[in-house]
Protein 1
Amino acid sequence: MQIYDLAIIGGGPAGLFCALAAQSQGSGGKSVWIRGGRPDFGPAYATPFDVHVLNVPAERMGAYPDQPNHFWRWLQEQELTFAADAYVPRLLYGRYLSSLSTQWDSDQITSVVIAASREADAWRVQLDDGSALLARTLILALGPPRQSADPWDWLLALPPGWAPPPESETIALRGSGLTAVDMALALRALGFRGRIHAYSRSGAWSQSHAPTKPLNPADASKLADDLTSATSASDVVSRIKRATGRAPWRSVIDALRPHSARLWSVWPIALRGRLLRHGLSPWNRHRHRMAPEIAALLSGDDNLVVSQAPPTSAAFTLDCTGFAYRNATEALPMPSLIADGHVQRHSLGRGVAPPERDDLAIVGGMLFGALIETTAVPELRAQAWDAVRRLCST
């Protein structure tokens, strides 16, 4: 049986970033990247529609922590003349990730991992083709848990020449966040001219990016320090609202991002739980913003509705409510690791807790709950490099 020093499980951006980190830092032995069955880097980067753009400027989407503008430089090398602050089509980011994956010069496996367990002083990784391998250390970079009825699966499985419902029909979108925005744009690109009705508890789309002067570092640190002493979820919200009375709200939200992990770790578990139940939706609406040009498309579409109530009738409904973090423990190979006590469900009921073992690391969306920011590229690349550094030092 093949024995590796490091096994990386996960074929999305988080898995790739771990592979790049292992290759860059040197894992101290032979590594294997187990990508799973998808040939791409997730459905959002496999979209064929140019209107599906990144929600972050190109200059901040690089795969390397010390080179955040690496993606933008790659675009220039491909003679794709986007501005550094442009919101680039996601299919180009998928090509960028694919180009980086060709740099991996160690073993690569496209089978799916179904279980992982301890065997002597190594991890036994069981694959769906019946084979297995051993690894001294293990990184799980599985990505956020997806819904069983993911709208991206529906979209990418449509046959060529799919005929949309007639203009007299309505298509409903359950949710009004960025996934709903993507589905609305795709439906228009596919030729649907009827009513698109998005509905959610907020009855509002995600906010858009806009030019905003950042808070100076001293004010940002002062704001974060002030929030550490908050005693309740409503106190957190009140202090942030007061801050937005002194500075633009985008500046306040952006200033908190580098401090989010520290704040989340010091707040009591009850406070964090209440924020997840009652504050996550408005936070996401303001934190995870759409490109300005996309916001303009939505506002200019008179047959696009967003409200708190669903339509009275619809040809069909797409569930756009986002990731299913409560299902994190069901994603393979989590059940085997949980059964053996190597991984625990997080006490907030969303995602899993960071493992306490020094030969196991988890990167990315599965840590939601333990972390509040753990799905975007800046966090993924930082976590990937940290995980590889820690495991390779043992």
Note: Residues 377-392 form the longest helix (16 residues).
Protein 2
Amino acid sequence: MSISIQLNLCHKQVLIVGGGNVALRKCQQYVNEGAQVTVVAKTLHKEFANKPIHIIQGEFETSYLQHKFLVYAATDDLVLNEYITKLCDQYGILCGSATRSKYRSFSSMQQYHNSYVHLALSTNEVAVKLSKKMVEKGMEHIMAVYGKKLALLQQIKNMIATQTYAQIRGIISLFTEDKLETLLQMLKKKRVYVLVYHGVADENITVHDTNRFIKQIEYEQSVCISCVASKNVSVYCKEYLPNVFLFDEVLKLASYCKDIAFYFDIVLIREGRYFHKLAKQCKSVGQLIPFWFQKEVKKEYIRKICTQNDDTCCIFVLHDFDEEFHIIAQQYQGLCMGLKDEIPEVTNKNIHLVPVFMSKGSHFIDDVLHKDIGIYARLANQNYHITTEKIPIMEQAWFIDLYKTRLHNI
């Protein structure tokens, strides 16, 4: 058994025994890698005279092995090659051979490389001459599939410190091309505005709706991205929506890419325990923008909806009951309830049902507005006349305007 490794031969002492075509190819390869090459042979190919090497014209001697890091037996004499590899095995010197030897410590592989990839292949002596064609085809396929991605990674590597790239390489090497393009923009603009969502396992919401919202508020002086914070939704996105940034990914980028200013805006409805958990993580690597749904914003939101539906009782449905929200709603003859709460007593038979959620996820569609299983159905069973708020907060004009202002005021 064997393992494939890359050797750094720069400034290393290398000995090649032999002066023919095989020795010439090996000599050129090692010289290209910066090795200090010595060639010993009785007769040598004329091209050796043009190489920056040390030449010994004569028989091989054991003393030539002294201080050598690597030796290659490239003669056409099987016995001599065996002898050299056996000596190297005894002395602990890396040694290869142009012919079979049980003592050789490495065998050469067919290689092909460009600016991004160094590809080496062996057919284990089954089809040596075919290996060149195989490695060329393999490189063609790799570059067709990964060429653009490798080019983007190289650009990123060129823009940041070596240590920083080493720290984020494991994360970003698995990024899609779209995410790498975004990271490049972050590095160029040096500031990023991060919208942190809970997230839902729905492509229309997590990708299309969110991207549309970002395009409506984006500001040319700052890169604007969204990321998903929910662990369960992150698992889904990693499998099915790879272009979506995950909260953990953004935190790692922010912790290592110190040249980029990260501004975090947690887009939740309530400033509860989950908010504060996310906020603590955000503040450890960047700047946290104040919670968007402050009391005054909340009051204006409730006032506007209640005023537009002044002949009804507006019932605002949140994930969980919110005391402050409820008090404000009562000022406008409205009510607040959580998803699992009992239907509050309402004397007005005209109800305007308002799901207070960022997007049209399952809570909005199924738990609140569904006419068979949602809160809507529970109200209908009590003979209320119901109208509904059909647009989630993220799609409402006032919310888009609010976030344009927030982004521009950073």
Note: The domain at 13-108 is CATH 3.40.50.720 (Rossmann fold).
Protein 3
Amino acid sequence: MQELLDNANGAAARLIQFGLQPTLTTVSDQEYHTLLQRYFADDKFRERVASVGEGLGLVVHATSAAQLILVPTEGSVFRARSPDNAAKVALAAMAIAASFWPTPLEMDRATAPGARVPRIKKEDAVSVLRRIVDKAEPGTHAHDVSEWRDADIDHADRNTLFALVRKAVEVLVRNGMIIEDEGEMLRPTLRFATVAYHLATSPEFNEVQNA
């Protein structure tokens, strides 16, 4: 393994391999920790990681002491297949983000060192999603689920807003974006805060926050 770490290309590929595991952090893997420290300290190694990633269709989106956060480029083999009703699930994911950070000021502070880690329940995101649906214009994805608005929330396996939020939670947990604690409390990871911070510049997210 030491021979691999000494080889810049091999070490860069190894770090990218770690970065592709969204739930893995340097806390639980010493090799990941060593490589990420090298990434921070060595400009040439950082350039090598970017070069190897580019060849694989990956871009370093953000970094922290715990993780290297990668995103796939258009056409990359690493682009995840969209789930059924992908656009509606994405809408629910934005509702979750807006529940974590309901104001532009809170969103702006989301990735700051020592930032407060918000906690919500699925029902909080359902409330935001319901407000989005209430204001939806015809022809939008939000309007497409308007008939789900008053469906029984207890029937999570049917077409309800709660089911949509639950599906979004499953996708976000699987991709290391949020953590579901005991008691079904949700909290965001730095990965989700970083993605949401960049998402916050979009008109769609502004509409969600203002719903």
Note: Confidence is low (pLDDT under 50) at residues 1-5.
